[in-house]
Amino acid sequence: MHWADKIAEEIIASKEYKPYWVDDMKTPSGFAHVGSLRGPLIHSVIFRALKDATKEKVTYTFVFNDFDHADELPPEFKEELKEYMGFPLRKIPSPKQGFNSLGELLADDLKKTMQSLGVEAEFLSSWDMYHQGKFDGVIKEALDAAEKIQDIYERVSGSKKRQQGWLPFSPICENCGKVGTTKTFAWDGKEVSYKCEPDMVSWAKGCGHEGKISPFGGTGKLPWKVDWAAHWKVIGVTIEGAGKDHASAGGSYDIAMELCDKVFKFPKPYKLPYEFFLIGGRKMSSSKGLGVKAHDITKMLPPEIARFVFTRTNYKEQIDFDPVETMAIPDLFDEYDRCRTAYVDGSDETLARIFELSQIRDAGAKKDVFLPRFRDVANYMQLPDVDLTKKFEEVKGGKLTPEETEILSEREKYAKVWIEEYAPDEYRIKMSEGLPKEASKLDKEQKEFLSKVVGLLESGKDAETLQQDLYKVAKEGGDVKKAFSAIYLATIGADHGPKAAWFLLSYPKEKVIERLKEASK
Ligand SMILES: [Zn+2]
To answer: In the chain, what are the domains?
Structure first.
């Protein structure tokens, strides 16, 4: 049984988590790292498993915590937006056109990636919910229970950081607009008194303003652990997982669960602590700006294969995806194809289910489809004059259907990316550093041909024209194949290689000319 179906079964059998409301959230403070896709995809898979297992209504929401303050900025906007550190993300201007704020820009970026991977959540904004007054009730409950909240922090986390007179609310400073620098010191049941502290945090300086304001309707927000639990009650969440970094014993997930139960008197959601998604063996945190962004994943993999990375692995297991200079991507395609076969012929229930849950929409009919193997596509497409369709019709032993042709052209697109950016060197056909020793095999006619190629290159043609001209000149000498092999002997040390004109033009002209001159001596 697939892990998501097991969870769905457990949730339904418990009768505790009704109505079924799956939720996840994220603070849009930077272009999200690819690792942050694990949460939305785990929730998406569980959402689908629940829908398949019950006739009752299942809802999936995804909250952007866009009321949160900025305590870091995307590196590319750091200089431009530095004066906005400490502001709510929705009050920081967007550095790109078409968005009203930085928060909106960053949320939209992640939302588009999630949607392209088939995440079917309804998207909500914290900022909007606070401003619609939906948090007014929980704000009052939290302010009235400030001592109890501190008790829970202490008891669950074991920390002794109790502050005299602490209140769980951060107003937006009416003078400078920051929300990350304010501290509330009094609550009279109607209004809070606060100070915008110059030295409370290292990443922003408060203006020193003191004010008194109603805490309702979006004038400020709850601190994040309280805010997390408050969201569950406001939205009606019954199922919400959390990444391992929040889910350690006594960590923020545990604290939010206790606050939900004891302060907001709302049933704790179904708990689901999940493991990390690592790229290149390291946890590449978005705060360090390392590695791949969420929006890069669909440039690397077709959407359903990207989704497959998450659906096939149990949420309790770490995913180590290391695509650089490895066979991880071709292996992934092979495994996906195996799951597709299982789906069609019914040979393995779990693999078939993985395939089904990896689809962006529905899995379609269970019919046999010829799948061109990804690594073969990558290999053949680098060879000269190989017509991929013809080649795979040979492999299949028949004409490709329109669906198969579509699969082939998608694989061709991603194979090109793999070859250019990820493949190990031995899989990539590229010009050698120095003149290859195989170039000593060149005979007089081949050397003459190379001299003529130099002339063609110097005249600066586009690839299409150059290819035709190369062919013309090669034909004049009689043996076309032998002429072309001269190009490959001189550049990659083999007697065949990628389509010549495109290959030659993919390097700086001077470098290629120098090489061909050297080889034709
Ligand atoms: Zn201020």
So the answer is: 3-136+223-279 (3.40.50.620), 158-221 (no CATH), 325-426 (1.10.10.770), 437-520 (1.10.10.350)
